[in-house]
Amino acid sequence: MRRVLVLAVLLFAAPALADEVMIHVGHNKLDPAKVTIQAGDTVVFHNLDQMPGGHTVVSEDGKLSSPPLDKDAQWSHTFDEAGSYEFHIKQHPGTKATVVVE
Predict the structure, then answer these.
(1) Weakest-pLDDT range from 11-25, 32-46, 57-71
(2) pLDDT value at position 18?
(3) What 3 state SS string does the chain have?
(4) Number of Cα atoms under 13 Å in the Cβ half of residue 13
């Protein structure tokens, strides 16, 4: 019985593991266009298409920017603060995605 109690305490006291969410980047495409995550989660932007010079993912406020991503390259960011973060592809500025952090 004592082992069960210790195990239960450890399970409830353990910090929640952060999740990782993928957004696929392509020509005129960010998929999914909206994701909702929890504070502390990470979003991975994975470029699926070839683009001379690569695709660059940029936040609308200009505070976050990936390096140019070649085909199959990834860039990730961990979101620690709640809010709504809008992104676009620098080479395709009309292509947008939103990350909602709760």
Answers:
(1) 11-25
(2) 74
(3) CHHHHHHHHHHHHCCCCCCEEEEEEECCEEECCEEEECCCCEEEEEECCCCCCCECEEECCCCCECCCECCCCEEEEECCCCEEEEEEECCEEEEEEEEEEC
(4) 6
Q: What is the mean pLDDT of residues 10-37?
A: 84
Report the candidate in 80, 92, 96, 89 with the shortest Cα–Cα distance to residue 35.
96
Q: What is the pTM of this model?
A: 0.83
- Single-letter residue type at 85: Y
CATH code (residue 47): 2.60.40.420
Residue 64 is encoded by which pair of tokens? 């976050």
In a domain, 3, yes or no: no
